[in-house]
Amino acid sequence: MKHTPKGTHAWLPYLPLSIPQGRSPFEIAQSELREGLKALGISKEAKIEVLGTGDEYELSDTGDLQVRGGPTGVLYGSYHLLSLLKRGAELPKGVVRPFYPLRMLNHWDNMDGEIERGYAGRSLFFRGNKVSFDRERIHRYARMLASVGINAVSPGNVNVKPPMDFLITGKYLPEIAKLADILRLYGIRLLLTVEFNLPLAAGLATADPLDENVMRFWRERAEETYRHIPDFIGFLVKADSEHRAGPFSYGRTHPEGANMLAQALKPYGGKLFWRCFVYNHNQDWRDPETDRPCAAFMHYAPLDGQFDDNVILQIKNGPLDFQVREPVSPLLFAMPGTKKALELQLAQEYTGQQVDLFYQAKQWQDVFSLLSADRVQFITAVSNLGDDPNWTGHDLAQANLFAYGRTAWYGRSDPEQYALEWAQLAFPCAGKEVADILLHSPDTYEKYVSPLGLGFMVNPNSHYGPSPDGYEYSSWGTYHRADREKVGVDRSARGTGLTEQYPGEIRAMYDDPAICPDKLLLFFHRLPYGHVMRDGRTLIQRIYDDHFEGAHEAKELALRWKTLKGLIPEDTFERVLTRFDRQEKNAREWCDVINSFFFRFSGIPDAKGRKIGPSKPAAHP
Amino acid sequence: MKHTPKGTHAWLPYLPLSIPQGRSPFEIAQSELREGLKALGISKEAKIEVLGTGDEYELSDTGDLQVRGGPTGVLYGSYHLLSLLKRGAELPKGVVRPFYPLRMLNHWDNMDGEIERGYAGRSLFFRGNKVSFDRERIHRYARMLASVGINAVSPGNVNVKPPMDFLITGKYLPEIAKLADILRLYGIRLLLTVEFNLPLAAGLATADPLDENVMRFWRERAEETYRHIPDFIGFLVKADSEHRAGPFSYGRTHPEGANMLAQALKPYGGKLFWRCFVYNHNQDWRDPETDRPCAAFMHYAPLDGQFDDNVILQIKNGPLDFQVREPVSPLLFAMPGTKKALELQLAQEYTGQQVDLFYQAKQWQDVFSLLSADRVQFITAVSNLGDDPNWTGHDLAQANLFAYGRTAWYGRSDPEQYALEWAQLAFPCAGKEVADILLHSPDTYEKYVSPLGLGFMVNPNSHYGPSPDGYEYSSWGTYHRADREKVGVDRSARGTGLTEQYPGEIRAMYDDPAICPDKLLLFFHRLPYGHVMRDGRTLIQRIYDDHFEGAHEAKELALRWKTLKGLIPEDTFERVLTRFDRQEKNAREWCDVINSFFFRFSGIPDAKGRKIGPSKPAAHP
Questions:
Q1: Model pTM above 0.90
Q2: Could you report the predicted ipTM of this complex, rounded to two decimals?
Q3: Which residues of chain A make contact with B600, given a CB cutoff of 8 A?
């Protein structure tokens, strides 16, 4: 039942591990700035002035340092100021304000302390089916989040498992309120995940959203939650998804279900976040008509305008499920009359599980390069944190949290800039080199894992390691349909029609294999192995080349890290080195399995004569 | 921590559920015979007379019924007599004696109550890391075993998990002795599984078998075990196998390790059973030279004559691992100067997990048709029992335990006879029909699962349901190497050489694809899909045909069961019907996945035009 008490400084090496004193974000800002300047050896005066109401701030250095801004703005401004001073960078001119009003982090923690898709230890919030946290650690956690502007947290798993469903009752709210009390000092507010069927568990005869008793039940839950946590943001719901109950269980629509919950929150200014991860998870793999990536758009797009104004649809970045490479979700372009939140995943479920390095900001850049940031009103990300001393298991995975904070603040992804900032803060002696390692990592990982946009070639359940047919004959709707001639699913207008869910230009690009981006080619198209790509290589040769290159680059990454010995704190250096060694082995395994798999189907040897898996049966000696 | 208190009568419906009174097998026999005759409505006198020393008995009906035999023989004779009377069958002439002196059952129970590869509930012997059993249930269990002549039981898993390793210490022996006290009444003696590294766990510096302290340690363990259980049989060991420690851990040979343990048991007449399930479980799938089925023979055959005379090598029926179809293990023919035990598996790990019906005696018949029963001196089987009220989850799976008892007694498998006996005892109104269902079941299962001797096309870990590539890129050494041209591993003299481990005639048969039994064709040979088989069909067509037939037959089985409504006790009928329904779905899934898998590789359509999986990508409507 014990917590790992300490967390490291993360990217805040200039702040003391002891917790700051203060009873408001303003006082915390004063404390942090004072201690930070001391540690940086800067003897200037620093003045903090609260003006206005929000997260915005203005920094200036006119002999004295000045941070002016809203009540939380001064905290963000102070952290920003310190990071700029630490890096010797220039202060921004004018008022700085965040693009998204809520910059959220969704933990997937269970009350037994386990974390679903967690790769960095156990929960920071729960143990033994109780709310349980180390106060000091929560202070350090909140400081880390506030330092990059994250201002909203949901601690519990969207797959709500008992007794988490009763978190919004008097049994647990007093403890949750204590958590909220700490977070509030850092400008962070709480969301809580709720179970749609809670009324049933609580003894009601139904959880039908149109039932009067059910409505009253939820109004009471909202009332009690706000009584304990006055600045509570609202509920987060996963309904009618992957075995979870929802409006469908009662013959109701999603607007009927979501609006009912939203109306319970409305009197308190509360919001309802409603996840759109809805698809048939009991699909028959024999059925070639049903195509999972089409599901969310098909279900939700026709419902535009039917959701109340405090309902926010929370939509994953891609139409499938956080794969290494996916197109942007078409639903993000749709529903102009509905509020939407973009959901990213920091937890590296499909991107190396915090053993293999995968710097995600480049992936997000792909999203924002097509999707104007104002298409969504909110942003959230699934947490990659746990109670490991370094927070993220892989020390370098901290960069993803950092970059997410920046992305959520600015409403755009600038991978080079964020990587450099993080690396310079975390490893002042090796900032540029570490940033460069980060920036190369996603392309390397993608090369040795995902063949041109094919996803889910992973071991079932764990989602780690190669298993090309792992989900091929399952009910999860994730198929590559590889055979001896072709591979991929035709999702064009001639196939399942996914491309038709996109707006004009994007649709045209995805629909035509001649202009579809290479790395999404097999996501959208079913092609023969001999298909000649724009660069003249065949499809199969490109798969081989990518995988050999990826495995080689993984080795290079490890070698590059080794050159940093002495420039990185010894324990961090060794910890990361161990992960790179594992990654090198993983990469080799991925390369050989994927290439063997396609060689067995295609029978086409590598044009460069490299050995692919066991190409011959044994000769008896 | 509670046990399910009751077990059903199994195939002994004429005995009361209340436990018999008696302080010896002789007195138990008297009680059982008295109660049994009463329930059968037979008013003849029955006389039991103890003569001689062993398990043998003689039955006669000269007006009075007579059972004459050894102290345990009279118990076996009494059960046999009752079963014959119940079935209206003739009494055997002359003295009946068992072929094997020890007819063993190996449970794979863990001390937390879970059963490894258990499909019928939880352990009968352990709960909450304690020895824990329901006395009445153990009486019924022992009676059931004794009624088919089983006389030795090892309750604990061969994968010994803490605290099971300390079972042979004073902490647990008093409780184990109480278990032995009950079993002894039914002629059943105990074996215990031991952990080779126990000396380390107990605080010694090493578990090296040649270390004096280690030898003394094991002598003390043997002494203490025999002090508590004077008729203890000995130890059962899984060493140097699948992550377990063994002599190799200390640079010693298996004779050195096994003989050391055997010598500790020797003063008490104890035996050491040493499993030969030794292979490289960290194999590189790219390596085409290493062939797991070759491993046991390669390791042990050269060691003939080096084991002490109270060491018994325990060898699985096949060289791989309890697959649906395997050749007999070549090691069973080797090592004339070494004692051997044949190990079967009643737990249906790879044969339907007691959801799908698989009557195993036909599989054993294949063993005994090639292997003269006297090649081995002992026989054992992995238990299919748990604390489910019906003992085996699937009621009809009881037939496997019954048939195993008979097989172990007679030293031969007579599937028809044993099926009929069991079915007539368990379901007097539908004996022949149920026996016929049993007898068809293994062929049906094999057809929809295993393509001509290919194994391990199952989901990893669970070993249930189809996953043709589930183990293909793993470290477990179980590969089919399917590609677009061929499938199978060449294990002939031209390949990995497994066939050369067999004696002359068998070798010739397995080595030549022209005379190799069809159902082992792909176990021993790598062949193109167009290979023409003896019946004129191509290999691929045979795979398709088998799978379609198997799925169809599974449906037929369920239909046949439905015709028995009214002839089978209602609750049993419904329980079994549910399993047949599940089997029908499983069979369909197996059929479609396996056929699709091979269609995708071969591109050869079914000659009969049947639909194979999703043969075309979707057309957009």
A1: yes
A2: 0.91
A3: 482-484, 601
